[in-house]
# Entry
Amino acid sequence: MQKKPKQPPSDDLSDEQLLQQALEGVVPLKNPATSDSRKPRRETRKKSRESDLDLNDFEPLELSAADEQLSIDSDDAHRKNGVQLRILKRLKRGHYPLEDQFDLHHLNTHTGKSALLDFISWSCQQNLKCIRIIHGKGLRSVDGPKLKLMSREVLRSHPQVMAFTSCKQNEGGEGATDVLLKTCIKTT
# Structure
């Protein structure tokens, strides 16, 4: 590209002519036509479930005495007084490494209770922090999940248990319970 010698500006040229003279030989950039704004959102109308459902079509749910007892006792998590909620959440998310587990399947409630108490005391002697109790969901039991309810009752009342919660779904769900124990100091 050859440069033209600059001509001295004359006083009789208008501003537009001066601009044209200054921009002579300039090639504009080829930019695609873009915009900083996004497409406007389509308006969506939120449907109300109440307007879609006719509440007169449903019958009230009646619970038997066994169902009411099951719903009251089937808390999936428990923590003792003084245990922070974040510790229970960490237990539920699996942040504490599982150190041992005990299976109560094929035991009745009486032998299961004594075996569970023995396992908890043995775990404290071994200075374990997190254990798992596998009790099953009680789906084939005639009277509901007896082992599950018994184990939850024992864990609530045991002095060495800080907190417990149901396992994650892929690790047993409602059929197993993760338990956080107090750290036991061994006396020699």
Observations:
- The beta strands are 77-79, 100-103, 130-134, 161-166, 176-181.
- The chain has six helices and five strands.
